[in-house]
Amino acid sequence: MGQQAKRQWGLARVAKPYLDELAAITRENVHLVVREGLCSVVVDLRESPHPIRMYASIGRKGPLHAGGTPKVLLAHAPAEVLEELLKKPLQAFTNATITNPKHLTKLLAQIRRDGYHVAVGDLDEGAFSVAAPIFGVRGEVIAAVSVAGPIMRFNKEIEQRFIGLVMESAQKISRALRGEIETVAQV
Length: 187
Fold this sequence. Notes:
Blueprint lengths: L1 H25 L2 E8 L2 E8 L14 E2 L5 H8 L3 H7 L15 H14 L2 E4 L6 E9 L5 E10 L5 H22 L10
Antiparallel strand pairs: 1-2, 1-6, 2-3, 4-5, 5-6
């Protein structure tokens, strides 16, 4: 547990300037999320300055089959993680939550092909999330980053803009973790 906390702290430290930048540009919540077993866990976040924003907290656990970052993490998890998750019925959080294992498996393949995921109202009613994977030094997905907010501030133009920004942030964090670029994080 201590080693895992140390890794997460290191990840959050390296990701800090990129999360700050993404939050400043988008003015929406920005989440850094990892997978712990069959759950997603928020390890760092930046809250939107808007008075209407999504609830978020560091340490918040969630499912893997609903939401932007959780599905990105599930799409890149070892096959046995998906097998274990599918042993029980998938819980519906909203009417948009995918509870059909075949539909979920198909979507996970699409996420791997696209390199990102846009979730709309499948975990929290009236919310969106645009997420992309963060790769560790061995090329494995170790986390995901997302921009999330209320659907009232989301449209196709914003979606395309956020996809580019989130993917760019994920790539920068991945490169910083591999030591390819200097980080400017303050400890």
